[in-house]
User: Fold this.
Amino acid sequence: MKALEIKKGIYWVGAIDWDLRNFHGYSTELGSTYNAYLIVDQKIVLVDTVKHYMFNEMLERIKSVIDPAKIDYIISNHTEMDHSGSILDVADIAKNAVVVCSPNGEKGLKKHFKKNLNFKVVNTGDSINIGRRNLNFLLMQMVHWPDSMATYIPEEKLLLPNDAFGQHIASNERFDDEFGWDRARIEAAKYYANIVLPYGAQVGKVLEAVSGLAIDMIAPSHGLIWRSHIKDIIALYKKWADNECEKKAVVVYDTMWHSTEKMAHAIKDVFEEKNIPCEIRDLQSSHISNVMTSILDTKYICVGSPTLNNGMLPTVSAFMTYMKGLAPKNRVGLAFGSYGWGGQSISDIENIMEAVKFELPVKGLKVQWVPDDKELIELKNKIKEAVK
Assistant:
């Protein structure tokens, strides 16, 4: 378990979580990494740590470079336990280390660990000289927690933004050009869609703040390090932060006796007839985090459920709650479903769509019992009129 030198005197010393498959509701089919970075200068700096159960892996990598007792600073860019989980273990070894964090980071770390560490609180514009390098700090509140911040090393043109620009990927490759842009882009999109999406306004401010910085490497705290596709990933973050949507559709549904399923496929046919690309996602087989990845840059969001016990099917209710929290903007919504005698599921979906300010060009797309050909044609005609 050796460290990997990413720049002269700067090392990746993180851990690879090959078996991670769920990250608080996010399906991580490729696992993840917890990236920590060791900077060797007149002062020794560790930027972020790893989940508690991967501490020994990180420690062995640090030991391959220096004696960990010599660490002078532990930078905590983010309080969440996948990054701060080993801070106490490091502090027990590096007994004189100073924990550098944001004002909210200090509050969060004290609440997490119930311990008053040797804190140094920094704000945007603050800097620490460690020898030939300087560590400059930028608060990134709500990207994606109130405590989040980035560390920038101007002498290295290196940005360490913690969760920003991350991806959940476990791999032996450490850099974007080793793994491949196409695959890295998909995982970066999934990460943004399921973690960062609600904070587009805050992301926009951060992108503006870093636009004047010279950057030739972005080293996030999950996944790959960006060195060849920096302009590409920043451009995508700008697009996602602005909630720019392409003229395409996603049809999301669950079904009991295939009636809502028939409606879903009829709706998909309408979009295809209008030459609008359309994905169809059955919630019995599609994980909600993968559905959100499809929604990230999609204009038309169609959600269907039959009525069960005066409401949505549990799978659809869970998806709608998840999507509401992620709050995609500038979307057009269509709610549909079959019912026996109540039909409340459709209005329940519409209420959530209205809560996140979707445009609803047509309401009440419901069919009682099993839709016949005439009813499906009527459904299609309503949607043809609504979709421009």
Summary: The first strand starts at residue 4 and ends at 7. The domain at 247-386 is CATH 3.40.50.360 (Rossmann fold).
